[in-house]
Amino acid sequence: MFDKPISQAQATRLWMIARVELKLQDCEVRAVLAEYGVTSTKFLPAYQYKEIMNRLRQCADAEF
After folding, report:
1. 2, 37, 58, 63: which has the fewest C-beta neighbours closer than 10 Å?
2. Reported pTM
C-alpha cells in the first residue's frame, strides 16, 4: 500500500541523520519535506522515505 506512513523509528532516524550526520537545521528539513507535500514525518509515505533521504543528502552537500 503506497499510502502507509513511515514508522516512528524511521521518523526518528530521519531526524537524527538530518541533524547529526548532515548538520541540517530543522527549517531545512521541513523545506525538503514541503517539496514533497509532507507537513510532518508522521504523514511521510513509506514509498517516499528513500527519495527524501537522498534529497536531504543533496541539500547537505550543496551547503559545503
Report:
1. 2
2. 0.88
